[in-house]
Design goal:
- It is a single chain.
- This protein has two domains: 67 residues, Response regulator (Rossmann fold, 3-Layer(aba) Sandwich), CATH 3.40.50.2300; 70 residues, Orthogonal Bundle (Arc Repressor Mutant, subunit A), CATH 1.10.10.
- It contains eight helices and three strands, in the order H-E-H-E-H-E-H-H-H-H-H.
- It has a three-stranded parallel β-sheet with strand order 1-2-3.
- The chain is elongated.
Length: 161
């Protein structure tokens, strides 16, 4: 979008015309983008390639005042809403993305990659990639060292794993 991102356009629309129902149609499946869209006021989030009937349903639902997320996004929305707290706080380990903090929080709770993947609805390879980026960003050489620092920062406190 020339001059503004979709998130900024959503923010402006919902601020200037709160009665307008904004649906985001995007190629992005990134959780940070999804959360930013919802925080900006979007009533729905659809990924390009969503079927015609699902798009029509989304338009009708949003127009009626509801919120709607395409099938591929809905389980992640639920998970993102359940995992609030320290892991979502950008002041804790600010060099990490929200998703990286979430992965590190689960690792600090003692969860293995396959359990983290299942809980966050990700592939194990994606979890391994997140762990690699976390180690790089934290400038540590091992998962154990990252977990120790995460616990010092307040992550991994809920041992409900």
């Amino acid at each position: 979008m020339p001059g503004a991102s979709g998130i900024e356009a959503t923010r402006r629309l919902t601020a200037e015309a709160p009665a307008v129902a904004v649906l985001v149609l995007t190629m992005s499946t990134d959780d940070d983008h999804l959360l930013a869209a919802v925080r900006a006021g979007a009533r729905g989030y659809l990924v390009k390639g969503t079927g015609r009937e699902e798009v029509l349903h989304a338009v009708r639902t949003a127009a009626a005042g509801g919120a709607v997320f395409c099938a591929g996004v809905a389980p992640r929305v639920t998970q993102l809403l359940r995992s609030t707290g320290t892991a979502k706080n950008p002041e804790v380990l600010p060099q990490l993305t929200a998703r990286e903090r979430e992965v590190l929080d689960l690792a600090a709770r003692g969860q293995a990659n396959h359990r983290i993947a299942r809980q966050l609805v990700l592939s194990e390879k994606t979890v391994r990639n997140h762990i690699s980026r976390i180690l790089d960003k934290m400038r540590v050489s091992s998962r154990a060292e990252a977990v120790a620092r995460a616990r010092d920062a307040g992550l991994g406190q809920n041992a409900d794993g």
